[in-house]
Amino acid sequence: MKTTTTKLPDGREVPLIVHEPIENPEAANNVDLKDMSPTVGDSQMSQAEFLRLMRLHNEKVNANTVTLSAEVSAKEVFEGKARTEKATNAPILDADGNQLYYPNRFRITLTFKGGLLTQTVSEKMFNDLQLGSTYMFKGHLGFIKDFGQDILSPIWQSYEFVI
Fold it and tell me: Alpha-carbon distance 64 to 94, whole Å?
């Protein structure tokens, strides 16, 4: 660091501090472009190889996958309740005068090594799964609404029958 003075346009002289680079090979301002090139062992890594390794690293760091092999041990349907107005408790009717109902809920229980998982599923999934059969479920973790509560649960994207 060196201190000098400089003259401003209005004629005043002010002190000026000049920082000079440090002659230290480990200092950040002495890093050359070749030092930033990724290396593996003694050889240079190609850009394609570097990008492949970064992609693999990102897949591991940002992974959100669930794979579960489980048996369907129980299936139950919760019938939808009749819809009513909150203020008067009067039934809500459709255009034909029939009582409206909330949709049915379909719940399955999966048994796997180490535990049980009970969750609400779609009607299609409920109908596809056979009681007592084993399936390989694949999906990710996410928050789902179950009777008004946010629950962290697996969200299945695919399932296949396992012999």
Answer: 43
Q: Classify each residue of 25-57 as buried b or exposed e, where b means 16 or more C-beta atoms within 10 Å of its C-beta.
A: eeeeeeeeeeeeeeeeeeeeeeeeeeeeeeeee
Residue 55 has a pLDDT of 87
Residue matched to tokens 């002659």:
23
How far does the chain reach from its first CA to its final CA, in angstroms? 76
Q: Which two tokens stand for residue 100?
A: 């409206």
Q: What is the pLDDT of residue 36?
A: 54
Main-chain dihedrals φ then ψ at residue 28, nearest 5 degrees: -65, -30
**Which residue from 111, 117, 123, 125 is spatially nearest to 154, judged by alpha carbons?**
117
Q: How confident is the model at residue 34 (pLDDT cuts 50, 70, 90)?
A: low
Where do the domains of the chain lie, and which CATH numbers do they carry?
66-77+105-162 (2.40.50)
pTM: 0.61
- pLDDT tens sequence across 19-30: 665 565 555 555
In this structure, what token pair is assigned to residue 29? Answer: 């301002």
Query: Which residues sit opposite 78 in a β-bridge?
Result: 105
